[in-house]
Design a protein that fits this description.
By secondary structure, the protein is mainly β. Helices cover about 10% and strands about 45% of the residues.
């Protein structure tokens, strides 16, 4: 399975963005799959469906507004997984106001936007930093705009 890849929306959705010619303006491939974090990779995070149940004196009123794709989130994290270059690139796209990107896992592709607050959080491993290796743990929370593929 390929690594997770963030890429700009200028070339359209793809499950193989590295093969697009010309390449997307932004293309960030994570150095390893998020398999060691608390939320290794959950594409079903967030709320699924809108509505309410209101109890009344004589029964109940059910309001069902359906499932809204953008209520969903993709969350993932990993421990001691990314180097400084990947962190800097993710920090840049995270800090883009209203920035929307595609994310692919090689099987699906979603148009996403970083959640606010805490859409991207990273921590340097100080043990390894003392041994001349800079490596970060991270967590990502993305709002699903659409499932493109």
């Amino acid at each position: 399975m390929p690594n997770l890849i963030f890429f700009s929306t200028d070339k359209g959705a793809s499950i193989t963005p590295k093969t697009l010619d010309p390449a997307p303006t932004t293309l960030i491939e994570l150095e390893q799959l998020p398999i060691l974090g608390d939320a290794a990779f959950d594409e079903q995070a967030g709320e699924h469906g809108r509505g309410s149940v209101i109890q009344t004196l004589g029964g109940v009123v059910v309001q069902d507004f359906g499932v809204i794709v953008s209520d969903g989130h993709i969350v993932f994290s990993d421990t001691d997984a990314l180097g400084a270059t990947a962190i800097a690139a993710l920090k840049t796209i995270h800090e883009t106001v209203d920035g929307q990107y595609y994310l692919t896992d090689g099987a699906s592709c979603w148009k996403v936007q970083f959640a606010r607050p805490n859409g991207f959080v990273y921590r340097k491993n100080l043990f390894w930093a003392q041994h001349s290796t800079v490596i970060y743990s991270y967590s990502v929370d993305l709002i699903i705009i659409t499932k493109a593929i």
